[in-house]
Amino acid sequence: MDIDEVLEKIGDFGPSQRKIYYLVSLSHLWMSTIVLSPSFIGLDPGWSCVPMVEESNQLHVTDSHNKCRYYEQGSCTPEYSTEFTSIVTQWNLICDKSSLPNLSQSGFFFGLLIGAWVFGTITDMIGRRKVYFMSTLFGAVFSVLSGLAPGFYFFVLFRIVFAFFSIGIGLGSYSIFMEITGISQRTFAGLAVHVFSAVGYVVLAVTAYLIRDWRALSVVTGLTGFLFLLLWRVVPESPRWLLVQGRGEEAREVLGRLARGNGTQLPAAELKKPPRTRGEKVSMLYLFRGRSIRQRTVVLVISWFTNCMVYFALAMSTGSLGGNRYISFSLSALMDIPAMVVTYFSLDRVGRKWIHGGFLFVGGFGCIACTVVQLLGASGS
């Protein structure tokens, strides 16, 4: 009896799996509060140029061109709005340094890139559970350290390291709950976790509204991650991974615990080892061997690149939309939830290809429409 048949017998998504799923998914909510935190801690609150020596004929300079000119000449010091603090106010990332906050986020995505390359292999080597908890520990540590950074480049470094470990958190947790969920409920499990991410963005906006000091905000969001280490005795190793490793008894123990929690019994039949390649070592190059799989790989890489670039660019720029930045950010995040609902109810009815292409088309049309409206507004038409 293979593991999918066993899950069908003991419950595809019973109380045991649901408890693990929702607890582990909360870590995605936590990560979201850190991933897009530069939307608040990287903002420029506005500043004026205060003369070094007060004279009767010297006034505070507020227009961007002149204040930067005086500031770079050393004729004045910046005086920031007291609405909130940020890395801009901490290290005077203004004028010729105004692009540095964006550098920190570019570094963050570089950390994600390296993490994706590394943790895909490590998760298969040492197990999903160890990767998840190890990454959670180090992710929380470096998130807190980013709020205590003594200098800007230390801040960037700590953000890169957190991004690296965030891949381990995401990949480890996703593998655990997907591999203990039966076939009939995997579509739900794979989509609903993104609702936690959307809620996490709203939690970030609320927290940033309540905590206006960037260091305190970074430390508070980072410390929250340590709570997930308490799940060590609750979250099991993936029984599918254990079977692949030849640890059948441990896999049966995990499945037996899930069965007891679901009020069912584990079948006595022997567990079949999941199929794997016959002695062939598979690398990423496998995705480019045949013409058909190569075409699909290229299309999906371009799609993911475009989707992530636009999604995070829009999410990071909500603070410049005007109005209340906290409400704008929250509303933008909440739009993910109806998108997930539509996807869930149409994915198996319409098909993956049409859903994927349709959402890309609608999203692209919306971006173009926004640009046209902005250009028409700027020209006064």
Could you characterize what this model shows?
With 381 residues, the chain is an all-alpha fold. 68% of the residues lie in helices and 3% in strands. The protein is built from 16 helices and two strands. It has helices at residues 3-10, 15-35, 38-41, 64-72, 87-91, 100-126, 128-147, 152-179, 186-210, 214-224, 239-244, 248-262, 291-316, 325-334, 336-350, 352-379, and strands spanning 47-51, 76-80. A two-stranded antiparallel sheet has the order 1-2. Helix 2 packs across helix 9 (186-210), helix 6 (100-126) runs parallel beside helix 8 and helix 9 runs antiparallel to helix 15 (336-350).
Poorly predicted residue ranges:
none
Number of strands: 2
Envelope shape: globular
Main sheet record: 2 strands, antiparallel
- Put simply, the count of helices is 16
Gyration radius, rounded: 25 Å
Q: Within the largest sheet, what's the order of strands?
A: 1-2
Average pLDDT, all residues: 88
Tell me the distance between the termini.
Answer: 69 Å
Structural class: mainly alpha
In terms of quaternary structure, the protein is: single chain
- Strand percentage, roughly? under 5%
Instruction: Kindly state the percentage of residues in helix.
Output: 55-70%
The secondary-structure element order is HHHEHEHHHHHHHHHHHH
In short:
The chain has helices at residues 3-10, 15-35, 38-41, 64-72, 87-91, 100-126, 128-147, 152-179, 186-210, 214-224, 239-244, 248-262, 291-316, 325-334, 336-350, 352-379; strands spanning 47-51, 76-80.
